[in-house]
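Re: the 309-residue chain
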Amino acid sequence: MLVAARRWTARLLETLLTLWLLATLCFLLLRAAPGGPFDAEKAAPPEVEAALAAQYRLDQSLPAQYGHWLADVLRGDLGPSFQYPDYTVNELLAASLPITLVNGGLALMLALGLGVPLGVWAALRAGRWTDRLLMFGAGLGLAVPKFVAAPLLILVFAVMLQWLPAGGWDGGWRSTVLPVIALALPNLAYCARLTRASLLEVLGADYLRAARGRGLSEARLLFAHALRPGLLPVVAWLSPALINVVSGSAVVEQVFGIPGIGRYFVQGALNRDYTLVLGVVLVVGVAIVLINALVDAARVRLDPRLRDG
């Protein structure tokens, strides 16, 4: 118990240090980038620029700006948005984060719900034409990036067939289908390939060959002995898969015009909205930490031998 408590304490300290370094590096890179949040083609009067700089503390030294920002973050205040002056970063993220979570969660469920069965099907038919066809499709899904897949989906299902809207967000299922598919495609393809490879390795293990020799049916071998160890690499892959969904949301939300955190991140970076970009970075960083913790717990649940690792 004491060892476990020390381990979790060390992990918590490591997590907090990582988040602090991430936020600090992002803060410095944003300030080092050319241009500013209030730069425009037509320069504002000097008194207006001075008032804006004072309002957002941009007239202070860089260490002072960093100190004020860090103190606000520790109080849970991510500051006002430069691009959206009527809203704070907390308000923008509170409105956009649920949209990103819904789309990302549905995309991951779709990837797992189709990828695992397809991978199992391909492993059980290794070398046959169905296996080759599935793996060819999976390779194609990995090769097509999201910024290509998303416009293609719009072209086919929104423009040509007119089944679904081309963009926008109204909270209904019709505006969710195409973004979720675009987010899920690469993860679905990788999940199918990973499941197939892992299950083939497990099915070729000596203990399964011995069980098969004792007359156990293929169905019992699969569900009672092979599936659980075969899915361990898939569970370990969930962490980068979820991170891929979060990072890919920036492209997909921008293409479909969805007001999620990915789109706000892109717009904030283009408009030098320092506080908005830093807020998104912190939220995504915390999400990644939670994802890694949940995935580690799931791996230990499936394989108790990892508890001693």
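The domain at 89-308 is CATH 1.10.3720.10 (MetI-like fold).
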